[in-house]
Amino acid sequence: GENVEQHPSTLSVQEGDSAVIKCTYSDSASNYFPWYKQELGKRPQLIIDIRSNVGEKKDQRIAVTLNKTAKHFSLHITETQPEDSAVYFCAASAASGGGADGLTFGKGTHLIIQP
Amino acid sequence: NAGVTQTPKFQVLKTGQSMTLQCAQDMNHNSMYWYRQDPGMGLRLIYYSASEGTTDKGEVPNGYNVSRLNKREFSLRLESAAPSQTSVYFCASSATPNTEAFFGQGTRLTVV
């Protein structure tokens, strides 16, 4: 089955600086890569996703890049703000649309924004 | 629009007791999932259902059973709870497998 590795487990950055979280996956059939943000005691919520036919996607201060050859993808947050403090999870899925394989998640990155 | 609703929010069980976690979605989604979240482990898939009447095992299915009662509802049952099942359980749904998954608010289960 799919295996997703996520690094680092904890990331502390100064407010206004950029943050980068990296993930690798093992199943070359994976074609959908979402990122979820989870605040303390809350449910995970999607912040951005990318599909295997796209190399990069941006949404305001958030961007995701995908390297299919190397089987890794990254989350980039620019101009970090206090409200960006949370746990971020990457995930991968190989479901083709004919079945629900579910998402395989990384173990999470605790992002701390220092004032 | 409630999205994905789970009940209960908190539960304490004694070892060997049984219980059912309920999940319902009002988004007309085909796919539904149960995950467990343990500290430092991320979210791990227990069972999923591609559509009404179908269920399949995920990464950690042992000790659990599920029922896709109809398109809206997907329940998770612990037949004989064990301390290793102490966790936060999340139900989720998506329109199709490779689209945004919406999560319920979670159930914090403690088995003593």
Instruction: Kindly state the percentage of residues in helix of chain A.
Output: under 10%
Q: How many helical stretches of chain A?
A: 0
Pick out the low-confidence regions of chain A: none
SSE pattern of chain A, N- to C-terminal: EEEEEEEEEEE
Write down the overall geometry of chain A: globular
Rg measurement of chain B, Å: 13 Å
Q: Please, what is the average pLDDT of chain B? A: 95
The count of strands of chain B amounts to 11
Low-confidence stretches of chain B: none
Biggest interface: A-B, 28 and 28 residues
> What percent of residues of chain B adopt helix (DSSP H or I)?
under 10%
Instruction: Tell me about the largest β-sheet of chain A.
Output: 6 strands, mixed
* Amino- and carboxy-terminal Cα gap of chain A: 41 Å
Structural class determined from secondary elements of chain A: mainly beta
Note the run of SSEs of chain B as H and E: EEEEEEEEEEE
User: SS-based structural class of chain B?
Assistant: mainly beta
Would you tell me the overall average pLDDT of chain A? 93
Give an account of the 3D structure.
The complex is a heterodimer of chains A (115) and B (112). Chain A is 0% helix and 53% strand. In chain A, strands 2, 4, 5, 9, 10 and 11 form a 6-stranded mixed sheet that branches. In chain A, strands 1-3-8-7-6 form a 5-stranded antiparallel sheet, with no helix packed on it. In chain A, a hairpin with a 4-residue loop joins strand 7 and strand 8. The N and C termini of chain A lie far apart (41 Å). In chain B, 0% of the residues lie in helices and 52% in strands. The mean pLDDT of chain B is 95. At the A-B interface, strand 5 and strand 10 of A face strand 4 and strand 5 of B.
